[in-house]
Amino acid sequence: MNLRTLTQGALRLLRASNWPHLLLLAALPAAAWALRGWPHEQTLAVVGLAALAWLMLAERLWPLRSDWQARQPELARDAAFLGLNAMVDSLSAFLLTALVLRWAPGQADSPGGLATLPAVLALPLAIAIGELGPFALHRWAHRSEGLWRFHALHHQPAKLNAANAVLAHPLNAAWNQAARLLPWLLLGFSAEVMLWAALFMQVQGLAVHANLRGSLGPLNWLIGSAELHRWHHSVLEAEAHNYGTAIPLWDQLFGSYVYRPGQLPARLGLFASTAPQTWLPVCCRG
Predict the structure, then answer these.
(1) Tens-place pLDDT, residues 115-160
(2) Are the C-beta atoms of 272 and 243 separated by less than 8 Å?
(3) Could you tell me the pTM of the whole model?
(4) CA Rg, the chain, in Å?
(5) Which of 79, 103, 213, 271 sits between 20 and 30 A of 59, alpha carbons compared?
(6) Quick one: how far is CA 188 from the chain centroid?
């Protein structure tokens, strides 16, 4: 096998892969190191905005579908929800931390318990635990009429892109934050591990919605991807699974994992059986 053959094979593999997602994940450790010493809230904000900007640029250059590109009115809507939900996340984190410190002193960032675990063990454990609560609430929101009234806003668009990844009702954002952060605080993960886990989950939440062509291949069994998450936004309830975003672990364990390489759902949006959503904000009605 000569160099030309190897080069051609590498180029084919690159074209077939969702390399903007992989490059983003590869850059995370360097970003965390470069921003060491910054307040954690600022680190999350800077990395989140940089990841969003990268994914939106990549979507313009390597889109899966041109009709899924965000239009100007949609970008204005999504920017408004980005700002609103960023405030909700910050307030929720502050209140939850204060609550834990008030009622369970010594648990948050305690010197014992899970804070003593090596990072190589603590980080994947924190990611798995941090995904479990939002996963359970996500499944419940698809079965509960009351919760669905808030969660349906995220399913309203008939397209997926990085910008509308942030389209979520503030109450939906708040319960996800509580379900992720409260177990971390009560179990006493270190502040650094919580930050690293939050960075990974934040980037994944954006990347799985990105309008990018290519596949993660075997990595689809380990981490969430756009290839997996598109099925969750199908208009057909029977195939709208994959409730996890950062990792597919809980979907795999609870029987809601869908992986169909090379295939796409026929249409995205609200379920065909859903009644007209008159309770949605005016800006988000179709």
Answers:
(1) 788 999 999 999 999 999 999 999 999 999 999 999 999 999 999 9
(2) no
(3) 0.89
(4) 19
(5) 271
(6) 23
